[in-house]
Amino acid sequence: MFWPQIAIFTIVVLCLSWWAGRRGRNRHAGLILPICFILFGLVLLIASFFIGRWEGLALSISSVSIVLSSMICLIIFLKKMSLLKQGHLHCSSDCILHEGCP
Q: Which of 2, 8, 38, 92 is most buried (CB neighbours < 10 A)?
Protein backbone atom coordinates (compact mmCIF):
# COMPACT_ATOMS: atom_id res chain seq x y z
CA MET A 1 0.00 0.00 0.00
CA PHE A 2 3.01 2.29 0.42
CA TRP A 3 3.99 2.73 -3.25
CA PRO A 4 0.44 3.25 -4.60
CA GLN A 5 -0.07 5.81 -1.86
CA ILE A 6 3.06 7.68 -2.98
CA ALA A 7 1.86 7.59 -6.60
CA ILE A 8 -1.58 8.93 -5.67
CA PHE A 9 -0.15 11.69 -3.45
CA THR A 10 2.33 12.65 -6.20
CA ILE A 11 -0.46 13.03 -8.76
CA VAL A 12 -2.58 15.02 -6.31
CA VAL A 13 0.26 17.37 -5.34
CA LEU A 14 1.29 17.85 -8.99
CA CYS A 15 -2.28 18.73 -9.96
CA LEU A 16 -2.72 21.09 -7.02
CA SER A 17 0.64 22.75 -7.72
CA TRP A 18 -0.26 23.22 -11.37
CA TRP A 19 -3.63 24.67 -10.38
CA ALA A 20 -2.05 27.00 -7.79
CA GLY A 21 0.53 28.15 -10.32
CA ARG A 22 -2.15 28.91 -12.88
CA ARG A 23 -4.28 30.88 -10.42
CA GLY A 24 -1.50 32.71 -8.57
CA ARG A 25 -0.02 35.97 -9.67
CA ASN A 26 3.38 34.86 -8.43
CA ARG A 27 5.28 32.67 -10.90
CA HIS A 28 6.57 30.52 -8.04
CA ALA A 29 3.14 29.78 -6.58
CA GLY A 30 3.33 26.21 -7.85
CA LEU A 31 6.46 25.63 -5.77
CA ILE A 32 4.96 26.78 -2.50
CA LEU A 33 2.43 23.96 -2.31
CA PRO A 34 4.94 21.05 -2.33
CA ILE A 35 6.99 22.81 0.34
CA CYS A 36 3.86 23.19 2.49
CA PHE A 37 3.05 19.48 2.00
CA ILE A 38 6.60 18.56 3.05
CA LEU A 39 6.21 20.56 6.25
CA PHE A 40 2.76 19.06 6.85
CA GLY A 41 4.16 15.54 6.40
CA LEU A 42 6.98 16.23 8.83
CA VAL A 43 4.51 17.52 11.43
CA LEU A 44 2.42 14.37 10.97
CA LEU A 45 5.54 12.24 11.34
CA ILE A 46 6.41 13.89 14.63
CA ALA A 47 2.79 13.57 15.81
CA SER A 48 2.77 9.86 14.96
CA PHE A 49 5.42 9.22 17.62
CA PHE A 50 3.12 10.68 20.27
CA ILE A 51 0.09 8.69 19.11
CA GLY A 52 1.89 5.34 19.19
CA ARG A 53 0.62 1.80 18.62
CA TRP A 54 -0.84 0.76 15.26
CA GLU A 55 -2.51 4.12 14.63
CA GLY A 56 0.80 5.89 15.01
CA LEU A 57 2.48 3.42 12.69
CA ALA A 58 -0.17 3.95 10.00
CA LEU A 59 0.11 7.71 10.41
CA SER A 60 3.88 7.58 10.11
CA ILE A 61 3.67 5.54 6.89
CA SER A 62 1.20 8.05 5.44
CA SER A 63 3.32 11.00 6.50
CA VAL A 64 6.48 9.51 4.97
CA SER A 65 4.61 8.93 1.71
CA ILE A 66 3.38 12.56 1.77
CA VAL A 67 6.92 13.82 2.31
CA LEU A 68 8.36 11.61 -0.45
CA SER A 69 5.67 12.51 -2.98
CA SER A 70 6.06 16.22 -2.21
CA MET A 71 9.82 15.95 -2.69
CA ILE A 72 9.26 14.22 -6.03
CA CYS A 73 6.94 17.04 -7.11
CA LEU A 74 9.40 19.67 -5.94
CA ILE A 75 12.20 18.03 -7.92
CA ILE A 76 9.99 17.86 -11.02
CA PHE A 77 9.07 21.55 -10.79
CA LEU A 78 12.66 22.65 -10.10
CA LYS A 79 13.94 20.60 -13.04
CA LYS A 80 11.28 22.11 -15.30
CA MET A 81 12.22 25.60 -14.11
CA SER A 82 15.91 25.02 -14.80
CA LEU A 83 15.18 23.62 -18.28
CA LEU A 84 12.98 26.61 -19.08
CA LYS A 85 15.64 28.99 -17.80
CA GLN A 86 18.33 27.36 -19.94
CA GLY A 87 16.08 27.46 -22.99
CA HIS A 88 15.82 23.70 -23.51
CA LEU A 89 12.03 23.79 -23.15
CA HIS A 90 9.65 26.13 -24.90
CA CYS A 91 6.71 27.77 -23.20
CA SER A 92 3.26 26.49 -23.89
CA SER A 93 0.00 28.32 -23.48
CA ASP A 94 -0.39 27.05 -19.91
CA CYS A 95 3.16 27.77 -18.77
CA ILE A 96 3.36 28.69 -15.08
CA LEU A 97 7.11 28.76 -14.52
CA HIS A 98 8.43 31.28 -17.01
CA GLU A 99 8.04 35.02 -17.32
CA GLY A 100 6.85 36.52 -20.55
CA CYS A 101 4.71 33.59 -21.61
CA PRO A 102 1.45 34.33 -23.39
A: 38
Question: What is the C-alpha R_g of the chain?
Answer: 16
Q: What is the pLDDT of residue 90?
A: 63
DSSP single-letter state for residue 94: T
Mean pLDDT of 72-80: 88
* CA neighbor of 12 nearest in space, from 58, 65, 61, 56: 65
- Secondary structure class of 60 (helix, strand, coil): helix
**Largest Cα–Cα distance of the chain, in whole Å?**
53
pLDDT of residue 92: 58
C-alpha to C-alpha distances, 68 to 39, 64, 76, nearest whole angstrom = 11, 6, 12
